[in-house]
Amino acid sequence: MKKILLIGIFLASLFAQQSGKELFEANCMACHATKKPQNKKDMTAPAIMGVMYHVKQRYPNKADAVRFIVDYVKNPSPQKALCPSVKRFGLMPKLDLDDKTLTKIAEYIYDNYPPQGFKHPKGKGMGMKRMGMFN
Ligand code: HEC
């Protein structure tokens, strides 16, 4: 009995302490790839570095970017969208996550994407664009 209780507490603390990375992987990565996809036809959403590139263009400041992401995930709309991806993928579905979880995720993706040295392909015919990573 005691053992079960301890396991329960252990599991509860695991859930309570999920990092931004784990939360991103659990809730966002199914759609937002972090790497070049095997096949761009498998993509259902823009890769996360592309998303964050656009978000940071508009909101370079971390607090503003985090506020935008938290709001967008709870309530996506074509009017709010910064990426030109809505046309290609359709609108992101609304996700039912609390602000605390979303803030952790938003801070994590702000801190880690796009990776250093990332250049958004602007011109036509550039590699990343051709691969369909970005829109
Ligand atoms: C079911 C698939 C799906 C999941 C899960 C998902 N997204 Fe998205 N997301 C999309 C699609 C599709 C778009 C592009 C269309 C759009 O902007 O609404 C998008 C766009 C975005 C954008 C860019 C909005 C803009 O300015 O254009 C952000 C930011 C974003 N997602 C964050 C997240 C975060 C954070 C999570 C996890 C909590 C997440 N998404 C989970 C499908 C998803």
Describe the model:
The protein is mostly helical. It has a single domain, classed as Cytochrome c-like domain (Cytochrome Bc1 Complex, Chain D, domain 2, Orthogonal Bundle), CATH 1.10.760. 51% of the residues lie in helices and 0% in strands. It has 7 helices and no strands. Helix 2 packs across helix 6 and helix 4 crosses helix 6. The N and C termini lie far apart (55 Å). The structure holds heme C.
The CATH superfamily label reads Cytochrome c-like domain
What ligands are attached or bound here?
heme C
Main sheet attributes: strand count, strand direction, barrel closure = none
Instruction: Give the N-to-C terminal Cα separation.
Output: 55 Å
- Describe the oligomeric state of these chains in a short phrase: single chain
- The Rg value, from CA coordinates, equals 17 Å
Q: Which structural category do the helix and sheet elements fall into? A: mainly alpha
Order of secondary-structure elements: HHHHHHH
**Share of helix among residues?**
40-55%
How much of the sequence lies in strands comes to under 5%
According to CATH, what is the class?
Answer: Mainly Alpha
The counted number of beta strands is 0
Instruction: Please state the second-level CATH architecture.
Output: Orthogonal Bundle
List keywords for this structure.
135 residues; mainly alpha; Cytochrome Bc1 Complex, Chain D, domain 2; 7 helices; elongated; binds heme C
Topology:
Blueprint: H1 2-16, H2 20-27, H3 48-58, H4 62-74, H5 86-89, H6 99-112, H7 127-130
The protein binds heme C.
Quick gist of this model?
The chain is mainly alpha-helical. The chain is built from seven helices and no strands.
